[in-house]
Amino acid sequence: MAKLAVCGGMPVRTREFPKWPVRDIREEEALIDVVRSGEWGIGSRAVAEFDKKFAEFLGAKYAISCTNGTDAISIGLQALGIRAGDEVILPPYTFMATSTATLAVNAVPIFVDIDPDTYNIDPDKIEEAITDRTRAIIPVHIAGNPVDMDRIMRVAKKYDLRVLEDSAQAHGARWAGKMAGTIGDVGAWSFQSSKNVTSGEGGATATNDEKIFDRLFSFQNCGRVRTGKWYEHHNMSGNHRLSAFQAAVLIVQLDRVEEYCVRREKNAAYLDSRLREIGGVEPTVMTPGATRHAYHLYIFRFNSEEFGGVSRNVFLKALQAEGVPCSEGYVPLYKLPLFQHLDESWPALNKVSARYMDYSKVSCPVCERVCREEAVWLTQNMLIGDQSDMDDIAEAVAKIKGNLGELRGVAE
Predict the structure, then answer these.
(1) Is residue 382 within 8 Å of 13, Cβ to Cβ?
(2) Can you list the domains of the chain with their CATH numbers?
(3) Max Cα distance, the chain (Å)
(4) pTM > 0.85
(5) Residue 348 binned pLDDT confidence (cut-offs 50, 70, 90)
(6) How many CB atoms lie within 10 A of CB 138?
(7) How many whole angstroms separate alpha carbon 24 and alpha carbon 12?
(8) Rounded distance, CA 412 to CA 395, Å?
(9) How many CB atoms lie within 10 A of CB 2?
(10) 3-class secondary structure for 85-110?
(11) In the prediction, which pLDDT does 182 show?
(12) What is the DSSP code string of 157-192?
């Protein structure tokens, strides 16, 4: 009889992992309060309270909410003075919003390869990508694993570059004791439904510089300025304000961040140890110098050779069959159809910069290997359960490795 579930055997796990988002009566009461207040949008005390509470949570001087994480990056770039034709360095291993938010301000994404151990942008490769048109770096704290911000800031200072931290996956992550997103000039967050802090959709920016905050406010709020009249518009912008309903939910969500960060850290550490015992699967490394990984994702590296030469796709199929939801994650951004035809889909950019318009010539070998054959993703909700959930994951991986004869017969 077959042992592997993908071949007809019994799966290791038949029960579901914990659901996300976590919620209780507090979110319901907060929403009812907003409905009854009549303050659903402009002038909402709930939005003002969340902005204040989020800044306090981060240890930042200023924070301002917005519609989503993509807008947070675009607003942040505008506030930093990034203009048409400016080049912005970012990793190819991230959600497309990091690049499309850059394109939205008519700036040019310049992709720099990632570190093979952390999957974050490789600081050693940034300088060779800098030109006289480079204006900013967007380090992305992938999976909630902080980038080496000391090295990023040294490069930025050397070349007089702005730094916008894409912290969409890094709620509660810390670099050298400081919250991710508070070290560069601007931090940007997402509160989309999968995020560790969520209101279904939403975003925020933060800074410690009052002049930058003034510009964040303006680009978030139809070009208005904090000291101006309501119909006095200074900058080209739209309405990117958060609603009071989202703010009310986020206020409650912030109260759970620490508890769930601790829970994810504990379960991730245990799962690390279990997977390393099996061999052939190796968790990504928390960046040396980081003091908290937020674990929006738990990522481990699959080694085909140690699994008898079977592909990652076959491994993923087998692991899913054993009751462990998993995926391969990203593809390199420059390989997306968008970037293969960027001269057609973004003609305005073509007028301001010819560099890298042909993204088919871009090559980031580490990222391509990671995306093609190595990365295995588990989502953050899987880490908020108990140790038995981690045991099921490890036992499913061990079961697959122990039955490679069956696995070799599984189709791609």
Answers:
(1) no
(2) 25-256 (3.40.640.10)
(3) 76
(4) yes
(5) low
(6) 28
(7) 30
(8) 23
(9) 12
(10) CCEEEECCCCCCHHHHHHHHCCCEEE
(11) 98
(12) HHHT-EEEEE-TT-TT-EETTEETTSSSSEEEEE--
